[in-house]
Amino acid sequence: MAEDLSILQGTKAAQYESLLPQIKGLLEGETNLVANLANIAAALKEQFNWWWVGFYWIQEDELVLGPFQGPVACTRIKKGRGVCGKSWETEKTLIVEDVEQFPGHIACSSFSKSEIVVPVFKNGQIAGVLDVDSEHLAHFDETDRAFLEKIVDLIP
């Protein structure tokens, strides 16, 4: 297991390409879900310096806050509510260029301007979501979608 990340500058795709094998290394041999989610959130935050990056995990009828990096966050989210709840409901990645324009957006932080939420599947069922917020408008794109979907697929 790696103890330090090699942070690469350059294109977004190049940064993800460098980070993917490092995340694989962090997860290799570790079976604890919380440890793995924590390391993924930390690696993404360290590489990209996003405002907030973390996981919400499904418990009964709510998404419950899991490991994250960034300021304090909403603890529980109902299915269909906000970007995270809508991603859970649709089981699809959502990219929101301006969170103020998203119907029902949950404002955990007024600094968050754009967001991407990626569903996490375990054994063919949605188990949670990866939520990433930026303090910049229209920060996320199809490159983020493609690579973040690959990263959540690594979760054992």
What labels would you give this structure?
Beta-Lactamase, 26% strand, 4 helices, 156 residues, alpha+beta
Write the layout of secondary structure elements.
Elements: H1 12-27, H2 33-48, E1 52-59, E2 62-69, E3 76-78, H3 82-90, E4 94-96, E5 114-122, E6 125-134, H4 142-153
Antiparallel strand pairs: 1-2, 1-6, 2-3, 4-5, 5-6
Helix pairs in contact: 1-2, 1-4
Structure description:
With 156 residues, the chain is α+β, with helices and mostly antiparallel strands. The chain has one domain (12-153): GAF domain (Beta-Lactamase), CATH 3.30.450. The protein is built from four helices and six strands, in the order H-H-E-E-E-H-E-E-E-H. The chain has a six-stranded antiparallel β-sheet, sandwiched between helices. It is globular.
Distance between the termini: 15 Å
Uncertain spans, ≥5 residues at pLDDT below 50?
Answer: none
Q: What is the CATH top level name?
A: Alpha Beta
Number of strands: 6
Strand portion, in percent? 25-35%
Number of helices: 4
Which CATH-level-2 architecture?
2-Layer Sandwich
What percent of residues adopt helix (DSSP H or I)?
A: 25-40%
Helix/strand/pairing category: alpha+beta
H/E order of the elements? HHEEEHEEEH
In short, what is this structure?
This protein is of the alpha+beta class and 156 residues long. It has 4 helices and 6 strands, in the order ααβββαβββα.
